[in-house]
Design a protein that fits this description.
This protein has 439 residues and is of the alpha+beta class. It contains 14 helices and 21 strands. It has an eight-stranded antiparallel beta sheet with strand order 17-14-16-15-19-20-18-21, sandwiched between helices. Strand 2 and strand 3 form a beta hairpin. Helix 7 runs antiparallel to helix 8 and helix 10 packs antiparallel against helix 11. The radius of gyration is 21 Å and the shape is globular.
Length: 439
């Protein structure tokens, strides 16, 4: 039975605390049928509908003053097809539960992002990605989708069934309907060897093409106010397994990356003048290390320090120039940035609103500690990103609108035409979608 919390006066907040919403009611359907009924009832009551995941988006993509659908009862694996190499999961399943369940079955996704708190539908709908030379975002690993559309009907889509919906709905930002199940391509579990080491900004940027070409998964962090970076290369390995030791793992991943980092950010927020010094110390705190483990233990890491984030995809060929412009801007400004800048890559894919749609891409993510003013930094960074035809992550802070997206997404019109067909009355609309897709 679904739990309907009518007239609940609660306020919904996202993870970063920068978005709030006050829905008329909240519904937690226990089945696809109950979800369809909730959508039809919302239509009868003249209310908009939005599904929320774990609130890991920094934009108001899931905010609504109508009916808020919570998918926490729509979780778990529906079926595993070993022959086809697929797994079908309910939309509300958190990525961390999917990763653990797949590992128990001797299976894994090919690539994943670095956070696994999100639900599978929230992560894919906003275009969540990791880093990869050949393997793309989580949405690009989707083989099939089940979608409840505006009239409450259930639509199955794949390359064979409703292919035009499939081409768009894998990254649908909640505009085409509510995703109820996802079929992912999976493979037998494998080992990755991670090699983490410090490197200077000048060396990473000079050698970027080689580092990218020679590694299956390459990423790095640059610490503003310094010339220092931390690099990470993940490559498939024949083994043996050599996980990070419990103590050294705790020191690096919890104590330094979360505990000390949180304390340093609190100090920086209270006394911004200390930030460049803190950055110099932080950027040298993590030592080089190599370890071999199953994918989700290598790709993902705990993120307990709350922040606000903006991330743009630029053409991969423009990465180094864009990054150098960003560094020059920070160096000559009075900004004090306590969070590292994260750089990752993805190959071109065929999803209409994917940030890597039709082009090999590189991602530059800028962060600010929660509670510190981020507008000046993000505005200056966004000016640089958009000059390179950057495409912002759908779930992260940006100021772009439909007019801009029509220019940087060749298939933008294809997506909006499909939205007109599937949701003519804008049952799934909200302020964010009005801005990014038009009304």
């Amino acid at each position: 039975m679904s739990t309907t919390v009518s007239g609940k006066s609660g306020t919904w907040r996202n993870w970063a605390g920068n978005v709030t919403a006050r829905p008329v009611r909240e519904v937690a359907p226990a089945s696809v049928e109950e979800l369809s009924a909730a959508v039809r009832k919302a239509a009868d009551d003249g209310l908009k509908v939005k599904a929320v995941g774990t609130g890991h988006s920094f934009t108001a993509a899931a905010a609504t003053d109508g009916v808020l659908i919570r998918p926490q009862l729509l979780t778990g694996i529906r079926r595993i097809d070993r022959e086809a190499g697929t797994v079908t999961v309910e939309a509300g399943t958190p990525l961390k539960r999917l990763n653990v369940a797949l590992a128990r079955e001797g299976l894994s996704l090919t690539n994943m992002g670095d956070i696994m708190e999100q639900t599978v539908s929230g992560a894919t709908s906003t275009g969540t990605h990791g880093t990869g030379r050949d393997s793309a975002s989580i949405a690009a690993q989707i083989k099939g989708l089940e979608l409840v559309t505006a009239d409450g009907s259930v639509l199955s889509c794949s390359e064979a069934e409703n292919p035009e919906v499939f081409a768009a709905a894998r990254i649908g930002i909640g505009a085409l309907g509510i995703v109820t199940a996802i079929t992912f391509s999976v493979e037998p579990i494998f080992l990755l060897t991670a090699r983490e080491e410090p490197m200077t900004f000048d060396k990473v940027t000079a050698d970027f093409d080689a580092l990218f070409t020679e590694n299956e998964h390459f990423e790095f962090y640059w610490f503003p106010h310094t010339g220092n970076c931390n690099t990470k290369r993940n490559n498939r390995s024949a083994g043996p397994e050599k996980p990070v030791g419990q103590l050294s793992g705790w020191i690096e991943d919890e104590f330094l990356s979360n505990g000390v980092f949180h304390a340093a950010n609190l100090l920086g927020r209270a006394a911004p003048a200390t930030i460049p010094t803190i950055a110099k110390i932080s950027s040298r705190a993590l030592s080089a290390r190599t370890y071999t483990d199953i994918p989700y233990r290598v790709f993902t890491s705990p993120r307990r320090v709350r922040f606000v984030e903006m991330e743009y995809a630029v053409p991969r060929a423009a990465l180094v120039e864009t990054l150098r412009e960003l560094k020059a801007m920070v160096d000559r400004s009075t900004l004090r940035v306590s969070f590292p800048v994260e750089v990752r890559t993805a190959p071109a894919d065929d999803i209409a609103l994917s940030t890597a749609s039709g082009r090999d891409s590189a991602y530059i993510a800028v962060h600010m500690f929660r509670g510190t003013p981020y507008q000046a930094y993000f505005t200056a960074a966004e000016r640089i990103f958009t000059a390179h035809e950057g495409r912002p992550h759908w779930g992260k802070v940006h100021t772009r609108d439909a007019e801009y997206f029509a220019k940087v997404y060749p298939r933008f019109g294809e997506f909006t035409a499909l939205r007109d067909r599937l949701d003519p009355d804008r049952r799934f609309a909200n302020d964010y979608l009005r801005r990014v897709l038009g009304s």
